[in-house]
Design brief:
By secondary structure, this protein is mainly beta. It folds into two domains: about 80 residues; about 280 residues, Pectate Lyase C-like (3 Solenoid), CATH 2.160.20. Helix content is about 5%, strand content about 40%. The strands form four sheets. The protein has a 19-stranded parallel beta sheet that branches. Strands 11-13-15-18-21-24-27-30-33 form a nine-stranded parallel beta sheet. Strand 1 and strand 2 form a beta hairpin. The protein is globular, with a radius of gyration of 22 Å.
C-alpha cells in the first residue's frame, strides 16, 4: 500500500517538474534531478536524461517542507535547499549527472531559493503593525524571509501571502484580531508561500478563516478561529500544514478541511514531540452538516490529541482515497458518527502500548449520534481496538459498523 501511495505522489510531482524542465532546457538539457516527498514524509530521488528516467531511490535528508531544486548554470550543478524540522535552512549539491555530493551546509537567514536570494537585503528583522491605523497587508508585502511581524489591534482586512513570500511569521501576541470584511475571500490566504507561521490571533470573518493553497506550507499555532463565513481552516491544492494549539469553533462550515493531495499534522509538529499540542474543534457546521475535521480527495492527516465535539455532522470524516492516523483524541457529542470513513479511504487507530508518538490510543469516541466508527464504499479500519480505545455509547449504535473491513488487533 505504501509503495502505491509513494508512486502516486511521485508521479504527480514528476509530471509538473518534467513540464517545467522541458520549457527551460529544450535544447541541451543537463541531467534532470527529481526530489520528491512521499506520503510517509521520506524523500526519494530520480535521475532523468532526454530519453529515460532511473528508478526512484531513497534520498538522505529530513525536511519539514518539500525541498527546492535549482540548476546553477555557472557551477554546472543542481542546488538543493530545504527547511529542517527546527526551521534552519540547509543546502547541498548534485553534479550534472545527479550524483549527490553530500556537502550539506547551513544557510542562516536565506530564503530556500538560492537563485532568488539577494545579498545585502536585511532579513530576520522584527516589524510591528498597529491595526487599524496601519495595514498588516502592507507590512507583509514589505517583509523579507525570516521576518517576524508583531501585530496589535484589530486588522479589518483580508490578507494574502503570495508565493514569493517565504518564512514570514505574523504574531498577534494573544491580543490582535484579523477580521476579513470580504465574504468572497479567506481572511488569511497563503497561496504558494512556504514556511509561513500564523500565531496568537483571533481570526474572524471572510469566506473561511485560514486557507493554504497551491503548494503552500504553514504552521497555524495558538489561534482562535471563529465566526467565519465557512470553514475554519482549509488546506488544499497539494499544501502542507501543522495545526496546533488552536480553538476552532462556531463556524458554519467544517472546522478543518484537508483536500486535494494535501498533508496536515493536527495536534502536533513532529513525531519527536514529547507531548501533543491539542486543538479544540467544536460547534462547527451546526446548521450545515459541517464536520469537525474532513480529510478527502487524496489527502493524508495525522490527528493527535485533539478534542472534537458538538459539530454538525461527523467528528472526523476521511473520504475519497484519503488516509488518517487518529490517536489520543476525545471525539464526542457530534451529530453524525465519531469517525466516518468512505470511498476507498482508511484510518489507523492508536495502540494500548505505543512504540512512538503517533501510536497512542484514542481516549474516547462517545455520545455521537450515529456510530463510533462508520464505514462505507470500500473503506477500512486498522490498528488496535483495546481497552484504551473507548469507542462506545454512541446513541445505541454499534461500536464499529459491520461493513468496515477491519485489520484490528484486540487484547
Amino acid at each position: 500500500m505504501r509503495k502505491k501511495q509513494v508512486r502516486l505522489t511521485m508521479f504527480m510531482v514528476l509530471v509538473g517538474i518534467l513540464f517545467t524542465f522541458g520549457l527551460s532546457y529544450a535544447q541541451t538539457p543537463p541531467t534532470l534531478l527529481v526530489v520528491v516527498r512521499a506520503s510517509d514524509d521520506s524523500l526519494w530521488k530520480m535521475i532523468c536524461d532526454e530519453t529515460a528516467c532511473s528508478s526512484f531511490s531513497s534520498f538522505p535528508g529530513l525536511f519539514r517542507y518539500q525541498p527546492t531544486v535549482t540548476w546553477d548554470e555557472t557551477a554546472q550543478e543542481w542546488v538543493l535547499v530545504g527547511t529542517a524540522s527546527n526551521n534552519t535552512i540547509w543546502m547541498s549539491t548534485f553534479d550534472k549527472n545527479g550524483n549527490f555530493n553530500n556537502d550539506w551546509a547551513p544557510l542562516p537567514g536565506l530564503t530556500p531559493s538560492p537563485a532568488g536570494a539577494s545579498a545585502g537585503t536585511p532579513r530576520g528583522v522584527t516589524r510591528t503593525v498597529n491595526c487599524p491605523t496601519q495595514s498588516l497587508q502592507a507590512e507583509i508585502n514589505a517583509a523579507n524571509p525570516g521576518d517576524v511581524i508583531n501585530v496589535t489591534g484589530t486588522c479589518n482586512e483580508n490578507i494574502t501571502f503570495l508565493h514569493e513570500k517565504q518564512r514570514i511569521t505574523i504574531d498577534g501576541g494573544n491580543v490582535a484580531t484579523i477580521n476579513g470584511p470580504s465574504s468572497s475571500n479567506s481572511t488569511v490566504m497563503v497561496r504558494g508561500a512556504n514556511g509561513i507561521v500564523i500565531q496568537n490571533f483571533t481570526i474572524t470573518g471572510g469566506a473561511r478563516g485560514i486557507q493554504l493553497w497551491r503548494g503552500a506550507s504553514a504552521t497555524i499555532n495558538h489561534n482562535t478561529i471563529q465566526s467565519t463565513g465557512g470553514q475554519g481552516i482549509v488546506v488544499g491544492s497539494s499544501s502542507h500544514g501543522v495545526i496546533k494549539n488552536n480553538t476552532i469553533q462556531n463556524n458554519p462550515g467544517t472546522g478543518i478541511m484537508v483536500e486535494e493531495n494535501s498533508q496536515v499534522r493536527i495536534g502536533f509538529d513532529t513525531t519527536s514531540d514529547s507531548t501533543s499540542s491539542p486543538n479544540t474543534i467544536q460547534n462547527n457546521g451546526q446548521n450545515n452538516g459541517g464536520r469537525g475535521i474532513l480529510v478527502w480527495k487524496g489527502s493524508t492527516a495525522w490527528i493527535v490529541g485533539n478534542t472534537i465535539a458538538s459539530n454538525g455532522s461527523d467528528g472526523i470524516g476521511v473520504m475519497r482515497l484519503s488516509e488518517a492516523t487518529i490517536s489520543s483524541n476525545t471525539i464526542n457529542a457530534n451529530a453524525g458518527s465519531g469517525i466516518y470513513v468512505s470511498h476507498n479511504s482508511g484510518i489507523t487507530l492508536g495502540e494500548d502500548n505505543p512504540t512512538n508518538f503517533l501510536g497512542y490510543p484514542n481516549y474516547t469516541t462517545s455520545n455521537n449520534t450515529e456510530y463510533g466508527i462508520r464505514c462505507s464504499m470500500g473503506a477500512y479500519v486498522r490498528g488496535h481496538l483495546g481497552s484504551s480505545n473507548q469507542i462506545n455509547g454512541n446513541s445505541g449504535q454499534q461500536t464499529i459498523s459491520s461493513n468496515c473491513p477491519q485489520d484490528l488487533t484486540t487484547p
